[in-house]
Amino acid sequence: MDKEQNYLGLAEATGSVKVHALHTVTDIAYDAIKALYFVNITKTDQDYNVISTLEVTTPKLIMAAGSIGTTKLLIAAKHQGGLPLLNEHLGTKWVNNGNGGTMRQSQSDNETDFFGGGGPASIKTYDFEDPNAPINIQLLPLKTGSSSSLFTIVLGVPSGEGYFDYDEDNVVNLHWPEDASKNVYDRFEEVLTHIEELGLGSFSDTNHAIGQAVTLHPLGGVPLGLATDEHCRLKGYEGLYAVDGSIIPGPTISNPSLLIAAMAERCMDSIVADIMQ
Ligand SMILES: Cc1cc2nc3c(=O)[nH]c(=O)nc-3n(C[C@H](O)[C@H](O)[C@H](O)COP(=O)(O)OP(=O)(O)OC[C@H]3O[C@@H](n4cnc5c(N)ncnc54)[C@H](O)[C@@H]3O)c2cc1C
User: Is this model's pTM higher than 0.90 or not?
Assistant: First the structure.
């Protein structure tokens, strides 16, 4: 992201953009009379000790704090009165992208039968045999000291979905039902068992509860076309946008970062046009 020829590097090279690290947005609000967004920020050191706080005002606000960061800020603003007109779809369509994982070890003491020649490459395989639970399995070799294993992760299409709410203690909560991605996990175990039967490695116990409670790919919360229009504009406000994983309204069955970047680029065409008006 911050390489010279990538988004942040190119943006900084225009001279119009300054990136402020270690600045955490704490809350946002819209003043309809001034037609300005007010953004409160806490500046910290690397241990998160507060150095100072500041307030920024802007006529256009583009949110890119990720599925959880953006959704959390918007839900808090909706309930605390800063952005009361955000609609009922805010906080919906959240998924863990069907993520889960386990470690795979060689079945023999002789590592060379499994990791001979330096170990396998990272690979990604798709299994569409069960149309109700298509999955994508990825193998990530890990070598620590003399031992090696394969971190094996799954992506899929969970049958359930999560949502955010705001409670009486002023806390934004994410609810992910216990068995929301059980269908993905069941299929994952079937495939792993088959591999084990073929003598191609044994697996750590796949713990459903833990497996379904983790994610590398949080998605949704500000679903495109529901909480926003088709161009990332938050419904209820002018000049407020979300351009991160929060707008993806469901699982992607693949790694999502390029899809998120593509969607953000697509929306930027409309956002630039809005700003130039
Ligand atoms: C270990 C791991 C491995 C992964 N591997 C892959 C992969 O191989 N391929 C792939 O496609 N995807 C991968 N992903 C997923 C990918 O990283 C995410 O889907 C993607 O980064 C999400 O992009 P985003 O812009 O929505 O949010 P993020 O990349 O999370 O960016 C949000 C930014 O906002 C900042 N932020 C949050 N809250 C605030 C706040 N209140 N104030 C100020 N700043 C804030 C965060 O610090 C962060 O910098 C991986 C994820 C993990 C965790």
Answer: yes
